[in-house]
Amino acid sequence: MKTILTAIILLLAFGASSSAQFQLLGTAEEQMMNEFRITHNANYVTGALWSEESIDLQQRFELHFELMLGCENNGGAGLAFVMQKAGFATLGSGAGDLGFAGLRPCLAVEFDTYMDEFDVPHDHIAIMKNGPNHHSDNHLAGPVIANFALVDIEDCKNHKGKIIWEPGNQTLYVYFDGMMRLSYRGDIVKDIFYGSSTVYWGFTGSTGCTTNTQIVKILPTPPAPLEVEVKLEQPACGLGDMGSAKVTTNRWGSKYSCKWSTGDSYPEITNLEAGEYSVTVTNEWGEQVVKFFNIHDGSPIELEVDEKQRELIEVTGGQAPYQIITLKEFVIADSNSKVLYDKGEIITENVETLSFEVQEGAPNPRSFVEDSNPGRQIYEFLVIKAMDVKGCVKRHYFPIDKVEEVQPPVVEVPEPPQAPKPEIVENIPEVVNPVVTELTELTSSEGLGMLNGMPIIYEGDKPVSIGDRKIIHKKSKVLPVRSKVIKITVWDTEEIDGDIVSLNYNGRWILQNYQLKRKKKKLRVQLVPDQDNYLILYAHNEGSRPPNTAAFAIVDSRGVQHIALSSDLESCGTINFNYRE
């Protein structure tokens, strides 16, 4: 009995379901927790949901949601996010008015999917007041295309949206599909709501002569801001090799896109020369973080010295600034030891060393070293030590005691061979220019990591979509290879039907808008060791025989592997190359 009573008290306190937080009007209906169908697929219906709790526009407001705007292209008519004063029992007019006409005063962000005489010729977003007429004083901002990669957002898919009101700068921001699409700056409390900062918020929608099922899902605000870390692999000391950088986020599994200052879009980039770089990471909510970093110079440190004066003249190479230290170094040798001097460096075996920093006025510690090592051979050196910001070190040794020097090897120069007598050749054949096979190399100047403005979206290190197209990963398309550099040949083995493709490799477009032919197109790419390397086939059409299919030959040190990829206008096939060093 006590348990039942407790349950009743909890239901009264928190509501029997989430719909107790929202008032549903017209055709609006809750489908599951925090997901509401505003209109069903019928003509001339209107629906609305209003939060039963008002908000204060003197405070910051942020709302995350998903919109499913139907499956019928140019269907009707769209949804709107609305703030209004009339309360949570108010229903506006419908048809092409998105359900908020007649609400005064109100401010609305419309997601309009129907083109009428007052609209622009694409699915769009606009900010309005007191009514949905673009050709009146009600129009505040926009209209702008909702998603620059999609003409049609009535695609049966959920599209992420975000509304932010910042009272500090009196600006309303509108995000859609991860991009900030529109903003409006103005004193909406004074200019729209007549000085009252308390308003109700919700979503409205309608259909007219055209129809669509339209759904809103209210989502929780992310628990923490987007955090991005760039993990650097600096060049090894003195090897002159390249650096690398890799993006990680605090939301593993969430979708994001990268844009490096190099133009790449893959989460990891390699072969970076010394210099300053940046990366911009954007997640599916449109949150954006920019990180700046430096790749150090991996060239060896060089010391120019005055051998007679035993002084340093100049330091080059490595990564400035440098720290310079002068040392007294003592090499302590026995009968089985080896100590050789070689142009500023020493070669030793089976020795002990003691080093002391040279300080002005300090006595020479040689007597201390000799007293501590009776009967042993002592070699004293003056050492100039240079260390750069990476901690890389270069030393130059000046011998104080006589030390055996390394002798250069004696190279015997063989006598030049006798030149053979020239043969007299009659009837010299005509020289024919050799046919050079076309070979395209992947260079840093090719591609921008974006095709027609479409971001490549990743989950972790795995690409999952390009624009609105899913990337299909299959186990049969995982190829182990044995060479760091492989050759890729692509062609059309089927009937030549006008297939046009682009190829993306590790976030960079290496072939763009290419019509497949019987003749083989040859490319060459370099693999990143010990990770996945993705080659994605993007179809620009499906030719006369869908889907768009391309044949590939992969050549490495082991031989040739053949594989076929198919892509259509909704998905992209991919090959995953695995190279283990």
Keywords:
42 strands; eight-stranded antiparallel sheet; 581 residues; eleven-stranded mixed sheet; Immunoglobulin-like; mainly beta; Jelly Rolls
Concise structural overview:
By secondary structure, the protein is mainly beta. Strand 11 (159-166) and strand 12 (171-176) form a beta hairpin. The two termini are 68 Å apart.
Strand content: over 45%
Structural class: mainly beta
Rg, please? 36 Å
Spans where pLDDT lies below 50 across 5 or more residues: 1-20, 424-449
Morphology call: elongated
Which whole number gives the mean pLDDT?
A: 82
Task: Describe the fold and architecture.
This protein has 581 residues and is mainly beta. It folds into 4 domains: 2-219, Jelly Rolls (Sandwich); 228-295, Immunoglobulin-like, CATH 2.60.40; 302-399, no CATH class; 440-579, no CATH class. It is 4% helix and 47% strand. The protein contains 3 helices and 42 strands. Strands 18, 20, 21, 31, 32, 33, 34, 36, 37, 39 and 42 form an 11-stranded mixed beta sheet that branches. Strands 1, 4, 5, 7, 8, 9, 10 and 14 form an 8-stranded antiparallel beta sheet that branches. It has a 7-stranded antiparallel beta sheet with strand order 2-3-15-6-11-12-13, with no helix packed on it. The chain starts with a helix and ends with a strand. The relative contact order is 0.09. Residues 1-20 and 424-449 have low confidence and may be disordered.
